[in-house]
Every structure is written in structure tokens, then in C-alpha cells.
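During the reporting period, our protein records have gained a C-alpha cell line. A sample record is set out beneath this paragraph:
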Amino acid sequence: MGARAQMSEASIEMLERDDVLALQQGKLASLGKRLAGSREWRAHFARAGLKPEDLADRHALEAVPTLEKSDLRELYPFPFLTVPSDTVQRFFATSGTTGLPILFGFTERDVEVLLRGQVGRILRAVGIGPGDRVYQGYGYGTWIGGSALDEGIKAVGATNFPIGPGRGELAVRWVADHGYTGCSISPLWMMTLIDIARRQGMDPKRDWKLRVGVFGGQSVSKAFKDELEAALPDGFMAHNIYGTTEAGGPILGVSCPYSHERDEMHLINEDTVLTEIVDPDTLKPVSPGESGEIVITTLDKEASPVVRWRTRDLVRLSERPHDCPCGRKGYPLIGRIIGRTDDMLKVRGVILYPSQVEDIIAGTPGTAKEAWQIYIDREDRVLEEITVAVERRRNAELTADQIRESILRETHSRLGIRLNVECHDEGALPRYEAKAQRVHVRTGDNS
């Protein structure tokens, strides 16, 4: 199987865009036939006067109603499950912070063929393969991250050290003693590990052997990523990855060695997950260089497929989405995740995303890039005031007042609004092993 499968995989990755679209078209037609056997899916398509079989015409996809969490919660506990429950190997759950998590089933093929192949492609794109020792730092349980990376590491023939998040004092010792060369981990947790190592008298740049990492679960600025790379061995490359449970895992996007510097990712599994970048208000496709919401359709997944799932993640389509020296012309380039439509704040009429604040903090000397918070006083996020809390590094050259003034100046200059800024001593704000919660409602009683 090996050589032939590898040749086939390599040829798929180098397809022209028209060939990828043709693959998608054939799989859309097959998906429609499968969904036609589901009462729930037939009812969903009927809302637009359609049948699942209409997917044989690609243009029909644009008329299919989008899916949101409210649609799936109405069908609790196993929404749109398209296979008998006794053929489901396992369930993964969304990581949403409100309401009951939504469960998605995976058959044996979904896990051991589809997911393994998708994550394997992600890891090969960044250069992880046989001979690498990988610190797998994503979480387990019903969250898909850790289990998905386990499958990908197996696919590329690397050695897996499935430590997961936490146990920082031990983890930094093992990174040095075991000689890990790759990692899959939250960027915030990696920055915390670097700090722990330094407190133990270790220099990650000198004492660790890491050369490449895949970082997901939290979108961070290029300034943050640059600081991370500067703290690790020379040549270390921090690659962004992106995915969702609804898509089938952290399988949608990854940067290659060429797109890494442009802070862009390839939608590298578009032959198995069709991706639309649309205006969140009109749901019409955006043009190159414009920002929009990611909407996904899973083409090959047997259990719990989705059609036009609104991720609520906002991203910019590259100005040249099909032009990368790596040769993956069929797999569009997107920028890092800007934010989520449900993360949006409106401050005195100005639209603001937490990622914009993070960009400014990451570019301010002397701040702890992994520790910051936004405090608001209203759940509806239509605000008159907003407070940003940051930390000053212990050995920073700037004083707390200078850091505060710098952030005030930059936010007013770049965002057009004046914020309240608090500057705390290092260690005052929470750290996160996985996805960070940046926006907190704070009442007058606990401020």
C-alpha cells in the first residue's frame, strides 16, 4: 500500500483548482444520495424547496439552508446522524461555552481512514515525518484535538509522546530529555512552558531540539508567533493550523513553509471538506483580499456530516489564493482567523474584535503576550466602556505606566477608540492550556 498510497496522496495535493472542483462535484452528488436516506436531512433541504439529490448540481448548494448550533440542538442528542448508532466508533463534542455540547459521531472509517489521512496531510505539509519525536500537547476526552493529532502522527510514521496539556514542570524537562523535534500544542501553553523552563534555569533555545510545531485552538498575532519562534531553537517554525469539530477535526487549514511568512494557510483538505468564504450578512462569496465567514460542507464523512455549516469564524481570503510556490494551487490560501462573529464588540459605535487588541498587545515591548483580558459590563456587547488588562514582564525595560500609555496610544491610533488599560505585575492574570477566554463580563461589584 505504502508507495502507491503516498504517490496518490502527493498527486491529489498538487491538483489544479479545476480538478479539485471536479472532485468536489462528484462527491457532492454522492453526498446527496446518502443524505436522501435521512428523514432529518430531507426535512432540512425541504425548507428551501430542495431535495438532497439536488446536490448533483453544484449551484444548488448555494440555495441549501445554512446550519447553525440552534438547528442541531433541536435534534439533541445525536443530530443528523446518518449511520446506525451501533456503527459509530466514538463521539466527539464541540467546545462551546454555552448550552449543551453538540455531539458528532465518527465511524471506524471516519477515524482510521478519513481523519488519519487529513491530519497526516497537515503534518506532512509542515515537514513532520518518520524520525520525528512529537510532543502531542492537545487535550483529550470528548474534545477532538488530541485524538486527531494521535491519528495524524501515526499516519506520517513519527513517534508520539501524547502528554496533553498541563504538568508544565514535568513537560519542560521531558522536552529536553526526550529530544522532541516536533510539537502540536496551543501557542499560549507553549509560551507558558517557555517561561516555566526559564524559571528552572533552562534555555529552550539552547536546551531543546524542537524544529517545527503545529499551533491551533487559538489564533494569535504574527508578533506573538515571531516571539515564540525567537525563544525556541534557531530555525524553529511555528505553523498555524485551523479546524473545527463540525468539520471533522483540526484539518481545514495549515501554513506551508512558503505561506508561513505571509501568515497564511492552505485550505489543504478541500478535496474532502468543501469550504465557502462568504459575507456573513449576504452569504455571497467574497473576492480575493476580502474578509468573510467560513462555511463548510463535509464531503466524505460517514457519520454526522454537515452541509453549509456556519463556523462563525472570520478570515481574509488571500489576494492571490491559488499562487503558492509549494505547488498546492488547488487549495486556496487564507489568512489567520480574525475573530468570530459572536466575539464582536461594539464600542461607542466602533466594531472591535479581540484579535485586534491582541495584535497591539503583542507588538508592545515588555508585555506578557500570553496573558491579557478584556473586561466589559454588558452581555450584549454594545458598550460605552471597555477595559483591557495586561501584564508587565518582570525584567521589562518599560515601566507599567509606559506600557499602559503605549497601548492607549496605539488603540486610539489604530482602532479609533479610547480604552481603559490596566497593567498588572507578571503572574496576575490567568494562563490557558488550550483555548483562552479573553472577554469577561465584570460588574461594579467585582471590578
Remarks:
- The chain has twelve helices and 21 strands.
- The first strand starts at residue 88 and ends at 93.
- The two ends are 62 Å apart (CA to CA).
